[in-house]
């Protein structure tokens, strides 16, 4: 029954507008077992090949796992203000690491304005990377000149906040963010096929110069094998510090969601998850620790339409957990 329901949801996703060239990879983690399938338009099953996808903001989750390591090693403290690591000159607003990682630093999703304009242009007219060319010099200028609006909500998802967090970690480890995250992914987590390679085989890819601060939150390319491995490592807390990232660091809404270190934690299901997208991909990773079940969605369909990767992933994972409880 579980397989039938899964295939039905996948077929519904794969029948939406914009799926004529779909390559959708779905990974399932169930205890000690991991497997994946590849689907095309209308849910047609494709040969079992590990394709390479841009993973968007899942890059951020790998970076935030490195933050968990830095906290465990006492290189940083969650409530440190960022001026301990970044030169702040005349800044009115100096957030903490906790505020950066939980999207409560008040930067919002429209700061810096120059990047926000490029994001808007990208959404309406082009499919070019809005973060290309945004270097450390730009970030330091923007982080020092920021003035918070007291009328804005406390929690607003912010890629800029993630980029600032990446700069903090760069200073802590003495490496540029690109090499820092790539080395961490490969050497610490064993994600051998994950890197800033700009070499997807299922779609076009955003272009990067290699020195952008936004590489902390976007830009990695990966495979289903590596992403299932990353989910499995989080389920089993291997390395052990990954478990620190699953704790509550901020409550987004009273009865629905908490923030971990980057992770979103659903109250009702216990699902811990994150998603990521670019103009050419839409991805999701999620898991529930008690049942040791997880789902990975990698798609070359952009995040649009009634069903996106996050919705598909959470529905599939919720069904897996529910079926476990009924047995």
From TrEMBL:
<dbReference type="InterPro" id="IPR001466">
    <property type="entry name" value="Beta-lactam-related"/>
</dbReference>
<protein>
    <submittedName>
        <fullName>Class A beta-lactamase-related serine hydrolase</fullName>
    </submittedName>
</protein>
<keyword id="KW-0378">Hydrolase</keyword>
<dbReference type="InterPro" id="IPR050491">
    <property type="entry name" value="AmpC-like"/>
</dbReference>
<dbReference type="InterPro" id="IPR012338">
    <property type="entry name" value="Beta-lactam/transpept-like"/>
</dbReference>
<dbReference type="Pfam" id="PF00144">
    <property type="entry name" value="Beta-lactamase"/>
</dbReference>
<feature type="domain" description="Beta-lactamase-related">
    <location>
        <begin position="46"/>
        <end position="307"/>
    </location>
</feature>
<dbReference type="GO" id="GO:0016787">
    <property type="term" value="F:hydrolase activity"/>
</dbReference>
